[in-house]
Amino acid sequence: MNTCAFLLILAVHIHADGIEGPTAGCTFDEGSDPSLCEYSQGDDDDFDWQLFRSQGTSHASTDLIRGSYLMVNSSQHAPAATGHSPGALRVYVRVNGGVLGLPVWNVSGSHGHQWHQVELAVSMFWPNEYQILLEAIVSKERHGYIAIDDIMILNYPCYKAPHFSRLGDMEVNVGQNASFQCVASGRPSETETFLLERHNGKVTTSTSVKHLNYRRFVASFQLDNVQKPEQDLYRCVALSPRGAGVSNFAELLVKVPPSPIAPPQLLRAGSTYLIIQLNTNSILGDGPIIRREIEFRASHLPFSEINGVNMVTYKLWHLDPDTEYQVSVMLTRPGEGGTGPPGPPLISRTKCAGEWSSESYCISPRRSSCNTLCSFRTV
Ligand SMILES: *[C@@H]1O[C@H](CO)[C@@H](O)[C@H](O)[C@H]1NC(C)=O
Ligand SMILES: *[C@@H]1O[C@H](CO)[C@@H](O)[C@H](O)[C@H]1NC(C)=O
Ligand SMILES: *[C@@H]1O[C@H](CO)[C@@H](O)[C@H](O)[C@H]1NC(C)=O
């Protein structure tokens, strides 16, 4: 049903100490200070907003509200049919010329012959550049007008829309749940919808809204079992008919728990011990490594033991003689779920026990001969 769209772009540049000087905005009135109103028509669209001034026009007698404002006459862009809506008005907040994303606020349907005030609380941080885009979409449903006027950029808090505090970057390990806490000031109304918007436009709805005190609340969002492709920018949006609150974009970093590429190296084998070198200079996944552990088991037994290691070489004690062991290294990075899978195992055999030094006895190129000797000696 929607045919055309266009954009009006309002650029907002913020300085290190916030939006400076007098509040800016566009009243579209004749004789208003054009330096306070920095806007442009969009390029990638079907038509432009039209500046309407009731004064001195022959349209003064039409059903349009008097005044000076930007408007879209839907009958000039779409043939009429039957219905109730002349179209929709959508508002986008674009940061640093990035993707448009989803509208942070929108309205459609017929809203009578009067103005409605809407507030947009955009949490801005230096040195980013912000653009507010206003898009009118005309429908074939019904002839009518979509108009905007008195766009004010104020450097003090909104009255109706909640303001989000800075949303910090977050780091999680693959497979964990990422929990975003969007803290805002203002009073959320029952009609408020809280969304976590990914930079690509995908949204997650809030799992809970909790009041911290009468002026502050926190909306929580959880992304379950996050994987590497979910690493992206996210922001919080509070949406209601009265307006919208929009936070900054924060980065979700998804890290892969580390795992050694190569097995540990055998430095020496005795009848009851193995001395190994961890060999963890090359890893798969992400650092930093905060813990190293050795997992080992006798090859013929199903259960393994884990020992923490704080040096690059390690002696495994109290092993059974003449037994094959599998030894691998596990690495841990910070955060929940930061332990990676065990690396490839070193498969190594302890030497034979005996009355004599098994080490000198069992040096044999053929293991079978050593086995025979061991069993003979220990019977
Ligand atoms: C809107 O467009 C229609 C059709 O072109 C026209 O008849 C009407 O006068 C326009 N309204 C205004 C206020 O320009
Ligand atoms: C705003 O847009 C969303 C998604 O496109 C839609 O579900 C919602 O109904 C719209 N709201 C209004 C008031 O049109
Ligand atoms: C993630 O959250 C779900 C519930 O939403 C829970 O069942 C699961 O155990 C959580 N996973 C982790 C790794 O904490």
UniProtKB/TrEMBL annotation:
<protein>
    <submittedName>
        <fullName>Uncharacterized protein</fullName>
    </submittedName>
</protein>
<dbReference type="InterPro" id="IPR003599">
    <property type="entry name" value="Ig_sub"/>
</dbReference>
<keyword id="KW-1015">Disulfide bond</keyword>
<dbReference type="GO" id="GO:0016020">
    <property type="term" value="C:membrane"/>
</dbReference>
<dbReference type="InterPro" id="IPR013151">
    <property type="entry name" value="Immunoglobulin_dom"/>
</dbReference>
<dbReference type="InterPro" id="IPR013783">
    <property type="entry name" value="Ig-like_fold"/>
</dbReference>
<feature type="signal peptide">
    <location>
        <begin position="1"/>
        <end position="16"/>
    </location>
</feature>
<keyword id="KW-0393">Immunoglobulin domain</keyword>
<keyword id="KW-0732">Signal</keyword>
<dbReference type="InterPro" id="IPR036116">
    <property type="entry name" value="FN3_sf"/>
</dbReference>
<keyword id="KW-0677">Repeat</keyword>
<dbReference type="Pfam" id="PF00047">
    <property type="entry name" value="ig"/>
</dbReference>
<feature type="domain" description="Fibronectin type-III">
    <location>
        <begin position="260"/>
        <end position="353"/>
    </location>
</feature>
<dbReference type="InterPro" id="IPR000998">
    <property type="entry name" value="MAM_dom"/>
</dbReference>
<dbReference type="InterPro" id="IPR007110">
    <property type="entry name" value="Ig-like_dom"/>
</dbReference>
<dbReference type="InterPro" id="IPR013320">
    <property type="entry name" value="ConA-like_dom_sf"/>
</dbReference>
<feature type="domain" description="MAM">
    <location>
        <begin position="24"/>
        <end position="160"/>
    </location>
</feature>
<dbReference type="InterPro" id="IPR036179">
    <property type="entry name" value="Ig-like_dom_sf"/>
</dbReference>
<feature type="domain" description="Ig-like">
    <location>
        <begin position="162"/>
        <end position="247"/>
    </location>
</feature>
<dbReference type="InterPro" id="IPR003961">
    <property type="entry name" value="FN3_dom"/>
</dbReference>
<dbReference type="InterPro" id="IPR051622">
    <property type="entry name" value="R-tyr_protein_phosphatases"/>
</dbReference>
<dbReference type="Pfam" id="PF00629">
    <property type="entry name" value="MAM"/>
</dbReference>
